[in-house]
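Data card: per-record layout.
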Amino acid sequence: MFQLIREWLDRHFSDPQILILSFLLIGGFIFIFFLGNMLLPVFASIVIAYLLDGVVARLQFFRVPRFACVSIVFFLFMAVLLIAIIGLLPMLSRQVGQLLQQLPSMVAAGQKELMGLPERYPDFISEVQIKQILHFIGTEFTGFARRMLSLSVASVRSVVLVLVYLILVPLMVFFLLKDKLKILEWLTGILPDDRGLAIKVWREVNNQIGNYVRGKIWEILIIWTVSYVTFKVLGMQFSMLISLFVGLSVLVPYIGVTVMFLPVALISYFQWGLEPQFAYALIAYTIIQLLDGNLLAPLLLSGVVHLDPVAIIVAVLLFGGLWGIWGLFFAIPLATLVHALIKTWLNRQSLENHPEENGAG
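The structure for this 361-residue chain is written out next.
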């Protein structure tokens, strides 16, 4: 048994380039897994700088000096950030407070509706089943209230952290953009020389990640805006808050759309009951998601490798469980990385097993 394992390792990992690539991947995974929470501002800054660097590169195409391009893009980034902090956060916090105030009355109204179901549909549901459902809901609501209380107790610490991040992240974004070439030169200097395979994999994945991240950001913003305008026209309560989560739900393919249907339906029902507006809200949400899945997402993410739905769901569950919201956001790029690694591995093994075909080609 051990002899077979040794032979397999000798056959597949005798190439120094494969060893270097494996070391970089395993080292990167361990580094992010154990230090991810502490270095969260750094990772956030890298992601933002990566997105903004595309805009800087487009400005440089017009022969504008890089420092001037970085200054212009950073100024626009800070302007957008200030608008979001001054105009958006107060509205979101106000709607969160209103939702928390109305939540007990919503729960009471839901209990009343559920208790009436055995009388209307005695053949399908019993009073015992309703009591079990209410007990489960009550337990979950109590746990939710405790979590909210713990968050409010820790709110001072959270505010301090947010203020620190609001100072650190923009500074790091600026220096990452300004000193990009120096940082890349330093990284190149500490990496092994025999890294051709790692560079090949990175070049294949880099374009995919860039297309995906930029496309996904635009998809979130468009779905958020369209949902807000739609819900606002319908007169739905908490329209900004609900539309924000509808926009963020596109981060989790297939699952996010299904999960967000429930809060949209519940808030619509508690506001209008079974009036026509309730149906209009659900129909509007369904149309938005259909247009996103069949038109917007294919248009924005046309340059991304199309993965099997099962692979996407597995990636979302795996990386979301490991790294939370960041894992959800980068689930598809990471799945693309795995796809590129497997593809490169198989191609390399094919060339080693059939060298005469490579020579003939």
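Known properties of this structure: The first helix runs from residue 2 to 13. Confidence is low (pLDDT under 50) at residues 152-156.

See the next section for split statistics.
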